[in-house]
User: Fold this.
Amino acid sequence: MAAQERMDTGAVAVIGLGSMGLGMAASLGRAGYRVSGFDVSDASVARFAASGGRAASSPAEAADGASCVVSVVVNAAQTEAVLFGENGCLHAMPEGAVFVSCATMAPDAARSLGERVAATGRFFLDAPMSGGSARAAEGALTMMLSGDPDAVARVRPVLDAMCSVLHVLGDAPGQGAAFKIVNQLLAGVHIAAACEAIAFAAREGLDLQRVYEVITQSAGNSWMFGNRVPHVLEGDYSPRSSVEIFIKDLGIVLDMARARQFPLPLAGSALQMFLMAAASGMGKDDDSSVARVYARMAGLTLPGEG
Amino acid sequence: MAAQERMDTGAVAVIGLGSMGLGMAASLGRAGYRVSGFDVSDASVARFAASGGRAASSPAEAADGASCVVSVVVNAAQTEAVLFGENGCLHAMPEGAVFVSCATMAPDAARSLGERVAATGRFFLDAPMSGGSARAAEGALTMMLSGDPDAVARVRPVLDAMCSVLHVLGDAPGQGAAFKIVNQLLAGVHIAAACEAIAFAAREGLDLQRVYEVITQSAGNSWMFGNRVPHVLEGDYSPRSSVEIFIKDLGIVLDMARARQFPLPLAGSALQMFLMAAASGMGKDDDSSVARVYARMAGLTLPGEG
Assistant:
């Protein structure tokens, strides 16, 4: 059981060093872990190395000797590549090591990956998260976790270094993914609704700063309204989270529901708005760009535009 | 200017004694005002009288001698009837008295009523509110106010007795209504989205109490999710706010937008869900009944149902 001690110290690998992964790696470093990292983008790896991380040239090299690998990529296909692809990390991980998968994916995909990892004597935790890059950098993410309880207990200190709220939702992969999917349904609808409402307020000639103040103190508020509308008020569409992320996530939501013949008209309308944003050339911009879709259609000038 | 003193004491009338108006009348009574009241429902008037209010048999009788009349009816047509209909209150109000109109209505309707009242030497404050009947009873509503600044200053103590947050948004009727309409767009979409998400979670077999706990701590949260989903978890669809209220309010939102050729696809989808609930016989039930629409379609059993 020597390999199965609680990971209060030791080596952790982070695969995927985008705005989320980089912040999570920094949180792990502050907590005293030796953090190695890999990303397909050389620029991301360089940024990680500049912040003091041990840069690796492949998932396998990053995971070499790490009892815990945290995967912060965007979907099931990338997660599969990280594990099983060329220079994938799975066989570089010691037996009994724990793979923490943070990507949003369908529950079936998480279950399938979990079974393939378990068959090799390693552990797969289904660990999607909520909270943006600022929370990632602070070690204050919310995680929706499911997987083997002993593996969870073992890497608990690693998870606590990255998260302020940890929801343990089941003892097998798939449950975490399912809760995250419900969250993404709501988050996607709320972003689109926030953009619809603020653009409509602009059409009505209202003072948008006042609209923000009033709504955030009223029953029409949402976490996303409070978080995304400031991007519109500042006219800053640099991507904190891109339009394409919600095209992906609402795509998963709607694929799941269609497979069960379950209608989701609100989520369906929201996806169409994100697709309109991408079709307008804003796919890599901040997801609050949906407000610009309404504004362009209606000939409105939002703050910082025009 | 004797009639134009600050109303720290005196007679206030409340027209419309439903769950909101009754609570507001009680808050005014606690603050030391002499409160007279009227409602078209004899049962509501009796409830008001039993709580110590002075029951009147018409808006005119309630308003007789009151320097401030608070109108808590549901739409512009009812507000017009309260003011100008048979035994309407307008001409029973002393010159210089202030009519506080709390109904949600289109900005144009508020402007028009305001002009007609002003022409008689009284004042019309456009004062829609946010917050349910519990907040009304506590004197803790949020009000979105616009109208003559002197009239606002005069009835400020009356408003403070009913509200914990008072947004003064402009010096003429219409501005308050416009902010409320933006709030209702969001509130309506968020209720429908909350119902869509919790029903989908039930379809996925998730523990709905856990879903509530996780979402209310995540980026998918909204004020409405936190407020309405407990009704679904308790299987209690007695109306705190009915499906028909949002059919009315989203109807106003969408009529306004259509008149301006402004598209609101999210709000449009939400309205269809409230219409499905009403078509299913749930129009007078709590607006969280939208969850039951999804559940019935998909053959799901929600808590307390089936």
